[in-house]
Amino acid sequence: MLKLAAVASSVLVSLGLAAFVPAQPPGPDGPPPPKAKPKGKGEAKKKGEAGPKDDLMKAYNLLRRLRAADGSAGHPEERIRDWTERATRYYRDGLKAFDGGDDFLAHEYGAIAHDLARAADHARNAALLDRPDPDLRPPADGFGPDDSGERVRRALNRAYDRISELDNGDPALGAGFYLKASRDLYRAARRDAEAGREERGGELARAAEAMTHVADHLGHAADGPPVPPGGRGRLGPQPGVRREPPPPPDRREPNAKRAERRESDLPPPLPPG
After folding, report:
1. In degrees to the nearest 10, what's the CA dihedral of 174, 176, 181, 186?
2. CA nearest neighbour of 172 among 220, 234, 242, 117
3. CA 169 to CA 246: how far, in whole Å?
4. CB atoms closer than 10 angstroms to residue 66
């Protein structure tokens, strides 16, 4: 009994001493101690954050498909080929800006290239619908989604609202070309919707909306990156955040009237010009 008590006391004393003795580092052949993870590195990118790499990659993927389709399908429509070439030039400018460390211009040029390529892609889809295959009989009336007409009208409403908003401001240098193209696409899409060519009208309406974003990003690129209050922008010291000018009194469609128009309604035609 005394021997058992002595053994227990020895074990307790050993455990108590171990608490005060620091752990020995591993030997030369042992594994290295774990490294502390530096703060701010290795953290996952927040979902929804888009950077210049994302814009340029999206533009590259779509342009590669468009250019490959142009080479295999003969001669595309002149304006679609022109838009594709313009998008390619903006994409290359975005790459140069990114290589030069200008993430702001890389983002804007990448977004311009992607939106312009989207417009060309939708316009190309609409043009393909004009070439029926004589050996492929279409299905009877009533096939397809029941809400196709409503989806086309929603696309037309989005394009109309975008064009109306941009028409109320001063376009940036070079943006007028794309605003005119968006108006032409919208008018053609609306004519198709009225004539019952819903699939073609939907593609042209989406092309019109995509084209408005090209003009938007051209304005952003011309304005330069946002200037913090009291910072120094391209035009010298800035007293604070730039104030947007009030909307002109002759706005085409007031907000109250726009709210009355449902997305399922056909938007009004654009005025001449």
Report:
1. 140
2. 220
3. 10
4. 22
- Extract the tokens encoding 97: 């800006």
182 neighbors 163 (Cβ within 8 angstroms): yes
What confidence tens digit (pLDDT) does each residue in 114-125 have? Answer: 999 999 999 999
Report the distance separating Cα 55 and Cα 117, nearest Å: 12
Six-digit token string for 69: 């389709």
CA pair distance 120, 81, nearest whole angstrom: 8
Q: Compute and round to an integer the Cα radius of gyration of the chain.
A: 31
List phi, psi (to 5°) of 193. -65, -40
In 3D space, the residue among 94, 118, 140 whose CA is nearest the CA of residue 205 turns out to be 118
Q: Which residue is listed with tokens 């408005």?
A: 212
Which element (helix H / strand E) includes 237? strand 236-237
pTM of structure: 0.70
Question: For the chain, how many helices (H) and strands (E)?
Answer: 8, 2
* CA 10 from centroid of its chain's CA atoms: 72
Domain-wise residue ranges, the chain: 52-131+151-225+251-260
Q: Which residue has the tokens 């307790």?
A: 12
Determine the Cα–Cα distance for residues 13 and 201; give it in Å rounded to an integer: 88
- Average predicted confidence (pLDDT) for the chain: 76
